[in-house]
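Lecture 7 notes: from sequence to structure.

We start with a single chain of 146 residues. Read the sequence below before looking at the structure.
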Amino acid sequence: YGKVKMLQAVNLQNAHGDIENTDAVAWTTSSSTSYVPSPLLANGKLYYLKGSRAQLSCVDAPTGSVHYEAENLEGLKGAYASPVYANGNIYILDRKGSCAVVDEGASFKVIAKNKLDDNFDASPVIIGKDLFLRGFNNLYCINDKE
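Now the structure, written as tokens:
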């Protein structure tokens, strides 16, 4: 196993056997890719964090064309939780309880930041209008009652 972190888009209809160097691989990048957090697919765009840092990238999912790369999420530190999407927003939770709300789209725009007094490694879960966050000490439910 190499130590290169990589992200690939694979066309599963063309993927049979060893797909290296075939047209089954639509695109590949090793630039600013995730270590622990999973990428997020929303509206044809793929969002991912650099390593386990609070730096967000966004690419066009079908082509790999870069919309923005490794944009700093000011005030956030390392992140193990995967980003989630709800109601036009991307939620990114760091390990120290800070959460950035980023506008979904091809331009990088942080629209809010929030902080809880807990540590987090688990990815947020969204059920209906409830956002569940499992901290080291508590389970949180944040609800939009509108």
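The mean pLDDT is 91. Keep this in mind for problem set 3.
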